[in-house]
């Protein structure tokens, strides 16, 4: 696969266009005429827009997540996703905001393609604690930012204008 060429930064997000469609790379046209390459793990993290700065990621991981994790089953929309590391095999838990519609669970990727997203895509499965229910997630895939997928819940469709969405089936 040829390396992706970078487009100029637009606000907080950078978009990329790929010259190749091998290995499952999908080139999605955007409203502004720039294309975005999306793949289930082969494309680097810079291809997914991140609306939050890196310092906020570190703050959330160190201080916010340890407080929210035990309370997640009581806070509406907040869930804990359990996934296995790609290289270490270690089990990790990450606090996420989930949206359920039928047998589909979606998570907005406001922080871009983080390690937990890469882990879930590589494993092809994860578990999530939604309120007091434990759900097994299969078939993870990324819906690119700006796609306007009508299958997404309405609130998440608004977020999808700026950020990509991880969509999974509940198995």
UniProtKB/TrEMBL annotation:
GO molecular function: oxidoreductase activity
Classification via InterPro entries: F420H2_quin_Rdtase, Split_barrel_FMN-bd
Pfam families according to UniProt: F420H2_quin_red
Superkingdom assignment: Bacteria
Protein name: Nitroreductase
Source organism of this protein record: Mycolicibacter hiberniae
